[in-house]
Write a structure and sequence with these properties.
The protein is of the alpha/beta class. It has six helices and 14 strands. The protein has one domain: Rossmann fold, CATH 3.40.50.2020. 30% of the residues lie in helices and 31% in strands. A seven-stranded mixed sheet has the order 1-11-9-7-4-5-6, with helices on both faces. It has a three-stranded parallel sheet with strand order 8-10-12. A hairpin with a 5-residue loop joins strand 5 and strand 6.
């Protein structure tokens, strides 16, 4: 299931516009905060699909029965670009546990690359709802490798993928590689084009570099 939140007119698109704007991107603090804001809004929208149970809450004047979230999802950012998005979701799902995945592009001499998973810190995922946070879903390879690596920590009941911008090519790739009946993708926009180096066009650039500074490719 694909949820493209940018298709609905809302203030959410103002944030996406700022994230794409090359001039505003020069303020890394604002860029990180905008990623965080996207995470907050996606988390709110995502929360509508979860299960709730009624509880009785007592005030100084009486009581009220309120449906509250039955189970908080486990939030798992792909480092490093996924951290601000994760923080925004954690602002909403404030009782959620977190896992962390370190992944990078290993560039070969012919300029092709593979995705390498370096490290995972994660709670038990068996039967849980998980959210994988990665701002840019370009080729889809990072998400696929992360999903497969996470299976070593248990079989989630439901997986959500949170991205800011996704490419159509990346979406098609994960559809072919992953069991989509148990996966929902939440994104702010879907772009059609990828460059030869697998950057989304128009996209917004390298989210990790814009948030935390430039880094060299690993050869």
């Amino acid at each position: 299931m694909i949820k493209n939140l940018g298709k609905t007119n809302s203030i959410f698109n103002n944030i996406i516009a700022e994230l794409r704007d090359a001039e505003i991107q020069q303020d890394s603090l604002r860029f990180r905060r905008n990623l965080e804001r996207v995470g907050e809004i996606i988390a709110y929208e995502m929360s509508k699909s979860f299960t709730y149970e009624p509880i009785e809450v007592f005030t100084t004047l009486g009581s009220s029965t309120i449906p509250v979230l039955k189970e908080y999802p486990i939030l798992i950012p792909i480092l490093r670009a996924g951290v601000p998005l994760h923080n925004g979701m954690l602002n909403i799902f404030d009782r959620s546990a977190s896992g962390f995945i370190s992944a990078y592009r290993k560039v070969e001499k012919n300029e092709e690359f593979t995705i390498k998973i370096e490290y995972i810190s994660c709670p038990d995922l068996d039967g849980k709802i998980i959210v994988i946070c990665d701002p840019m879903l370009a080729t889809g390879a990072s998400i696929v490798e992360a999903y497969r690596a996470l299976q070593n920590f248990g079989k989630p009941a439901q997986t959500h993928i949170a991205s800011v911008i996704a490419s159509m090519e990346g979406i098609n790739f994960i559809k072919k590689q992953l069991p989509m009946k148990k996966i929902t993708l939440w994104t702010g926009a879907i772009d059609d084009e990828l460059t030869a180096k697998a950057y989304i066009v128009p996209g917004l650039g390298d989210a990790g570099d814009l948030a935390y500074g430039n880094k060299p490719d690993f050869h």
